[in-house]
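Translate structure to sequence.
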């Protein structure tokens, strides 16, 4: 009992390292006859204040390395995307076209086509755009056709969730990557049907064929190769809000294969694609994702890239690309492969730190085929030029001028005569890498004798990336 009490009283002192020395026992244990060796005392660890800074860092790094070995490997999946929320104010009824009743304007503008079509419309149906998708505030009174008017504002001011994007990148080793991009677009439904839909924008596999001479092959639903605007067609990569008047011909996703390569140290950039359809946007007349004919569309771009920042670093902070573009293949939606969709042009792009300049010119044609509801096209010289500048890391502005001269027909049913120009001014405020607020004013006009249409638009966009 006395021994238990003594242990109880000594325990706190032992824990504190202050145990008193005990008196020698009156009955000591008998000593062994064999000589005993002294037990080696453990080498004391140096006190924290005695360790050098190098020793402390080495110890911390060793502990971190052990923890990293215990963690599971990083996931090859990267999930990103954005939310694009807008507010717009259209002029008039929000439509970009008017009907030419009795061919009154056509008699002066195209007298050879008077009396050939049941309906004739003047203007650009997609000119009053409200977002980066290129949707018009309203498609207007367009009889004789069933279609989906996605915004259908009827001239009203309103908010619009332009789209919510989800992008998934999956690394498949060191030389392959899969990308999936889906846009969700909430719109008004009718007759008990939801108006919401999703748009599978990209579903592609990228294979890096050569690393020394950077060359990649893309398979699936891919980005086009025509021009430069497709590179910034999404709301989170576009400096401003709305696309150009000719973006409908060059920024649509395509189904097929493409290859891209940089030669001679990056001075030459080549890209080519073989696809089901042309590079027109799916919402426009000339796109067909699942082909209805055996012919395929070839498109390509050849660019000279001049590294101005390396040649004259005191003057330039970026590179200049000058390129020629071409697209050729059977017209979409036509079962008979007779008649081809042709598009050709040129573009330039300078991308610096604060300044960016881009321009595109193009022409094209397609004969159309009424029995398949394939539209015909006469696209005269059209294009755009734009300048973007960041005054500070937070605030920037942009200006763009557009021109589109086109004659679009569907058999003898309908015809659209477009001679449109547009001036767009925009402001941009980047509060962080994830939050950007943008505003634009679009002034749409007509030339070549077409009557002026009241279809200017003020629009804005709040893009939240993640």
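Result:
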């Amino acid at each position: 009992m006395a021994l238990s009490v003594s242990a109880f009283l000594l325990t706190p002192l032992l824990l504190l390292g202050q145990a008193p020395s005990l008196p020698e026992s009156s009955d000591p244990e008998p000593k062994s006859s064999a000589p005993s060796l002294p037990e080696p005392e453990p080498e004391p660890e140096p006190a924290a204040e005695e360790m050098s800074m190098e020793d402390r860092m080495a110890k911390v790094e060793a502990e971190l390395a052990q923890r990293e070995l215990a963690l599971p490997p990083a996931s090859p999946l990267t999930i990103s995307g954005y939310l694009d929320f807008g507010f717009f104010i259209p002029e008039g009824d929000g439509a970009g076209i008017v009907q030419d009743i009795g061919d009154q304007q056509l008699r002066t503008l195209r007298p050879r086509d008077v009396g050939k079509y049941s309906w004739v419309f003047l203007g650009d149906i997609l000119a009053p755009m409200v977002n980066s998708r290129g949707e018009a505030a309203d498609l207007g009174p367009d009889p004789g056709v069933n279609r989906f008017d996605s915004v259908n504002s009827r001239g009203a001011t309103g908010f619009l969730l332009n789209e919510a994007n989800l992008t998934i990148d999956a690394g498949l080793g060191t030389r392959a990557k899969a990308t999936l991009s889906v846009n969700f677009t909430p719109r008004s439904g009718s007759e008990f049907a939801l108006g919401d839909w999703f748009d599978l924008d990209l579903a592609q596999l990228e294979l890096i064929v050569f690393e020394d001479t950077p060359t990649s092959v893309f398979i699936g639903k891919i980005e086009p190769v025509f021009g430069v605007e497709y590179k910034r067609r999404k709301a989170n990569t576009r400096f401003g809000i709305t696309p150009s008047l000719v973006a409908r011909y060059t920024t649509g996703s395509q189904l097929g294969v493409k290859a891209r390569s940089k030669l001679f140290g990056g001075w030459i950039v080549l890209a080519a694609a073989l696809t089901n359809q042309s590079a027109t946007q799916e919402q426009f007349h000339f796109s067909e994702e699942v082909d209805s004919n055996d012919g395929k569309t070839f498109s390509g771009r050849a660019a000279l890239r001049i590294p101005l920042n390396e040649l004259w670093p005191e003057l330039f902070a970026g590179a200049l690309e000058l390129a020629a573009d071409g697209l050729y293949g059977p017209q979409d939606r036509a079962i008979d492969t007779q008649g081809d969709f042709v598009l050709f042009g040129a573009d330039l792009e300078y991308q610096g730190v604060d300044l960016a300049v881009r321009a595109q010119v193009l022409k094209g044609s397609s004969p159309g085929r009424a029995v398949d509801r394939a539209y015909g096209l006469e696209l005269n010289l059209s294009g755009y030029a734009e300048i973007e500048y960041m005054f500070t890391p937070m605030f920037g502005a942009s200006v763009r001028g557009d021109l589109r001269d086109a004659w679009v027909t569907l058999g003898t049913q309908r015809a659209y005569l477009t001679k449109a120009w547009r001036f767009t001014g925009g402001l941009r405020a980047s509060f962080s890498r994830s939050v950007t607020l943008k505003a634009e004013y679009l002034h749409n006009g007509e030339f070549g004798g077409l009557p002026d249409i009241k279809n200017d638009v003020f629009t804005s966009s709040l893009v939240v990336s993640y």
